[in-house]
C-alpha cells in the first residue's frame, strides 16, 4: 500500500507541477506511512527538555520511585533532549593560570531550591567550589540613591548554612550534578531512558489506541484501558514514543504547549539583558581594616533597567544588566574594555551623567558603519557589527570629566576609574597600605576586565500560560512562565514546579491512579499557578515602578524603600517569603513515614501570602503611577490644544485687521474652536 501511494506521488505526469516546498508534504506522507507500520514504545512519563528543570523532575521521579516499594517502581520515564548531554556530563571548565573561567549563564538558588536538590540526591554531585553564597544584598535607586540592605535570615535547617539567603552557581554545574545523579539511579536498575541528540519532529494524539508495550502499569486499571488520546511523539531518529503523561519543560517556545493548545498571555519589555563574567581585584578594605565581603550582591535600578553584580569568587562576578535593545547592542559592539568601564560607571555615577554617556555611545554607534565579522573561513555579513566606533580612552576621558563635575575624589568609593591604587598591578600595595572609606562596601569592586567571549544579551519578556494542564499533558518551568530576571527567581520557580509536580505524580501513582488524568494532576496547578502568578506580577510591577523618572513616583518609591530598610521585621518577612525559609515544616514532613511525598509545601520557593501582599502593594503603586501618567498626558494635550487655538485666533485677528473684517473673522474662528 505504501509502495503504491509513493508510486502515485512520484508519477512523472504530475511531478512537474510540484513546487519546491511541496517536498515537505511528500516527506511527511512517507514518514506517516512508514510510522504507521511501527509500534510505538510506551512510557508512563515523557519529559521534553533536558535543562535544569527537566533534569530535576526526572531525578525526583526516578530517585523516589527507585527507593519506594510501592506501585511507583513500575513508572517508566523518558527524557527527550535535542542537545548532546554528554558535553554537559563531561563539562570541565577551562582554567588560565590562577584564574577560573565561569559560564555567563548563572542562577541564584534559594535555600528552598537547594533543599529540594539535596533531597533528590543531586547536590552531592554539584561542585561547591564553583558556587558562592549570598549573605547580603545592596539595592538602591539610581536616581535618588535611596537604599535597602538585606541580610540573610537565620535558618534552622541542618542542610543549609546559617545566614545564607541563596547560592550562585553556573547552570552547567547544576545540570552536570543532576545528570550524574541520574546516571547513578540508572545504574541501580531505574526505568529511566534518556534520549539526547533527539528532536521532537511532531506530536499527535494517538487515534489508533493499539495495545501498550508497557510491561506493567502503576495503575491497577490500565490492563484493559484504551490508549486512544495518548500523545504520540515522532522523533528525529525515526523513533515513536507514546506517553501516558507528556511533560513540557522545553522552554518558552514550547512544542508541548503548542500541541496542548494552551494559550499564554504576556508582553515584551522592549529590553535586553546583557550577561557577562567579570574579573575584578581582591583589593578593598572597610573603614575598620577588615577584608571586603565577597558574598554581597549589588543591584542598582537605573531608569533604563537594573544592573546587578553577582559574586562568583573573590575575583570573579556575574553581570546581568537590563537596558534598551539599542544600548545593549551598542555596548556589546563597543568591546569588552569599554563595557568594563561603563559597568563601573553604571554603579557609581549619578543618573544625569549616565544618561549623557548613553547618548554619547548611541550617537557614535548610530553613525558607525557595520563590518562583517570573520568567522575563521570567510566574513559573514549576517554577523556584521559596528566595531571601533568609540575608544577606551574616549570613554575614560568622559567618565573622569563627569566625576570631576560631581566633585568625586579619585580615591573615593564613588570613583569608577582605574587609578594606580586600584589597578591590578598595584593590588598588593593597595591591600597593604590603602584603607578605603566607610562607603567601600556599598558598591561592588571595580571591574578590571570582562572574560573574553562571555558578553552576550537576550530579550526580556513576561508570559504566563492560561493553564498548566492539557489532555495528558502538563507544563513546567519556562514552558509555563517566563519572568524578568531582576529578582533572580526564574529557575527557582521552575524547580518549585518540578518539586510539586513530582510530588503530585508520585502520590497519585501510589494510590493506583492514572497519572495522566486531570484528577491525578489536580493538586499541581492548585499549588503552583497562583504562586507563580504572584512572583510574575511582583517583578513586572517593580520593573514598571523603577522604569520611570517622574518626580512624584521617584519620591514615593524612595520613601517606601527607606522606610522598609528601617523596618527590620518587614525586611525579614520579605526574605523569608522570597527564599522559602520554611525549615520547620520541611523537617517535620521529611521525618514523616510517607517518604514518597515531595511537595510545594516543603519547597515553597516563595510563600503565597507574602506574594499577594507584595503584589497588591506594587499593584497599588503602579496604579497611582499610571494614573499620574494619564493625568499629566491629558493636561499636556489640553494645554497644547489651548495654545494652538490661541495662536490660530491671534493669526486670524491679525489677518482680519489688515483687511478690515476683524469682527467677522474673529467670530468665525471662535465658532470653529
Topology:
Blueprint: H1 2-9, H2 12-15, H3 23-35, E1 41-48, H4 52-66, E2 77-80, H5 85-89, E3 95-96, E4 99-100, E5 106-110, H6 111-119, E6 132-134, E7 136-141, E8 147-151, E9 166-170, H7 171-187, E10 192-195, E11 200-205, E12 231-235, E13 240-248, H8 255-260, E14 264-280, E15 296-302, E16 305-313, E17 316-323, H9 325-334, H10 336-346, H11 351-367, E18 371-374, E19 379-385, H12 392-405, H13 427-433, E20 447-450, E21 456-465, E22 469-470, E23 473-475, E24 481-482, H14 490-510, H15 518-521, H16 523-545, H17 551-566, H18 568-579, H19 583-590, H20 608-659, H21 662-672
Parallel strand pairs: 1-2, 1-13, 2-10, 7-15, 13-23
Antiparallel strand pairs: 3-4, 5-9, 6-9, 7-8, 11-12, 12-13, 14-17, 14-20, 14-21, 15-16, 16-17, 18-19, 21-24, 22-23
Helix pairs in contact: 4-7, 4-14, 9-11, 10-12, 14-16, 16-20, 18-20, 20-21
Amino acid at each position: 500500500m505504501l509502495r503504491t501511494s509513493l508510486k502515485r506521488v512520484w508519477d512523472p505526469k504530475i511531478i512537474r507541477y510540484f513546487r519546491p516546498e511541496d517536498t515537505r508534504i511528500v516527506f511527511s506522507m512517507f514518514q506517516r506511512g512508514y510510522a504507521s507500520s511501527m509500534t510505538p514504545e510506551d512510557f508512563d512519563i515523557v519529559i521534553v527538555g533536558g535543562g535544569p528543570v527537566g533534569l530535576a523532575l526526572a531525578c525526583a521521579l526516578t530517585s523516589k520511585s527507585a527507593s519506594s516499594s510501592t506501585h511507583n517502581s513500575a513508572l517508566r520515564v523518558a527524557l527527550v533532549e535535542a542537545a548532546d548531554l554528554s558535553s554537559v556530563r563531561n563539562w570541565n571548565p577551562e582554567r588560565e593560570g590562577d584564574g577560573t573561567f565561569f559560564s555567563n549563564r548563572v542562577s541564584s538558588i534559594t535555600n528552598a531550591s537547594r533543599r529540594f536538590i539535596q533531597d533528590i540526591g543531586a547536590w552531592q554531585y554539584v561542585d561547591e567550589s564553583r558556587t558562592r553564597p549570598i549573605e547580603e544584598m545592596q539595592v538602591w535607586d539610581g536616581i535618588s540613591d535611596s537604599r535597602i540592605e538585606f541580610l540573610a535570615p537565620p535558618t534552622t535547617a541542618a542542610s543549609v548554612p546559617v545566614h545564607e539567603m541563596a547560592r550562585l552557581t553556573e547552570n552547567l554545574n547544576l545540570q552536570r550534578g543532576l545528570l550524574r545523579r541520574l546516571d547513578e539511579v540508572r545504574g541501580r536498575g531505574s526505568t529511566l531512558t534518556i534520549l539526547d541528540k533527539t528532536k521532537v519532529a511532531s506530536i499527535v494524539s494517538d487515534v489508533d489506541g493499539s495495545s501498550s508495550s508497557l510491561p506493567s502499569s502503576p495503575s491497577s486499571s490500565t490492563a484493559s484501558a484504551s490508549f486512544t488520546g495518548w500523545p504520540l511523539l515522532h522523533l528525529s531518529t525515526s523513533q515513536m514514543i507514546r506517553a501516558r503523561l507528556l511533560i513540557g519543560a522545553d522552554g518558552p517556545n514550547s512544542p508541548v504547549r503548542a500541541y496542548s493548545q494552551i494559550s499564554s498571555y504576556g508582553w515584551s519589555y522592549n529590553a535586553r539583558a546583557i550577561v557577562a563574567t567579570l574579573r575584578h581585584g581582591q583589593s578593598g578594605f572597610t573603614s575598620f581594616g577588615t577584608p571586603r565581603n565577597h558574598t554581597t550582591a549589588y543591584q542598582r535600578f537605573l531608569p533604563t533597567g537594573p544592573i546587578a553584580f553577582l559574586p562568583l569568587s573573590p575575583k570573579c562576578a556575574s553581570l546581568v544588566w537590563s537596558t534598551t535593545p539599542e544600548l545593549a547592542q551598542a555596548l556589546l559592539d563597543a568591546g569588552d574594555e569599554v563595557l568594563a568601564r561603563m559597568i563601573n560607571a553604571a554603579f557609581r555615577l549619578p543618573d544625569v551623567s549616565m544618561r549623557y554617556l548613553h547618548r554619547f555611545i548611541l550617537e557614535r554607534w548610530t553613525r558607525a558603519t557595520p563590518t562583517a565579522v570573520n568567522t575563521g573561513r570567510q566574513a559573514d555579513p549576517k554577523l556584521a557589527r559596528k566595531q571601533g566606533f568609540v575608544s577606551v580612552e574616549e570613554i575614560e576621558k568622559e567618565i573622569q570629566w563627569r566625576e570631576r563635575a560631581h566633585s568625586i575624589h579619585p580615591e573615593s568609593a564613588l570613583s569608577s576609574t582605574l587609578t594606580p591604587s586600584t589597578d591590578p598591578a598595584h593590588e598588593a600595595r593597595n591591600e597593604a597600605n590603602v584603607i578605603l572609606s566607610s562607603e567601600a562596601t556599598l558598591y561592588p569592586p571595580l571591574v578590571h576586565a570582562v572574560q573574553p567571549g562571555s558578553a552576550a544579551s537576550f530579550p526580556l519578556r513576561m508570559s504566563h500560560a492560561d493553564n498548566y494542564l492539557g489532555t495528558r499533558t502538563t507544563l513546567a518551568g519556562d514552558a509555563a512562565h517566563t519572568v524578568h530576571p531582576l529578582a533572580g527567581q526564574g529557575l527557582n520557580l521552575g524547580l518549585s514546579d518540578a518539586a510539586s509536580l513530582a510530588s503530585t505524580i508520585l502520590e497519585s501513582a501510589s494510590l493506583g491512579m492514572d497519572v495522566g488524568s486531570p484528577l491525578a494532576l489536580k493538586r499541581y496547578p492548585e499549588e503552583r499557578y497562583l504562586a507563580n502568578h504572584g512572583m510574575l506580577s511582583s517583578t513586572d510591577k517593580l520593573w514598571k515602578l523603577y522604569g520611570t523618572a517622574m518626580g512624584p513616583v521617584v519620591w514615593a518609591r524612595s520613601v517606601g524603600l527607606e522606610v522598609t530598610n528601617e523596618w527590620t521585621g518587614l525586611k525579614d518577612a520579605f526574605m523569608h517569603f522570597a527564599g522559602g525559609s520554611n525549615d520547620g515544616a520541611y523537617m517535620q514532613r521529611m521525618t514523616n513515614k510517607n517518604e514518597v511525598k515531595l511537595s510545594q509545601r516543603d519547597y515553597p520557593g516563595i510563600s503565597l501570602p507574602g506574594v499577594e501582599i507584595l503584589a497588591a502593594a506594587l499593584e497599588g503603586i503602579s496604579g497611582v503611577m499610571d494614573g499620574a501618567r494619564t493625568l499629566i498626558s491629558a493636561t499636556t494635550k489640553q494645554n497644547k490644544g489651548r495654545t494652538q487655538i490661541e495662536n490660530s485666533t491671534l493669526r486670524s485677528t491679525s489677518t482680519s485687521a489688515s483687511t478690515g473684517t476683524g469682527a467677522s473673522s474673529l467670530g468665525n474662528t471662535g465658532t470653529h474652536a
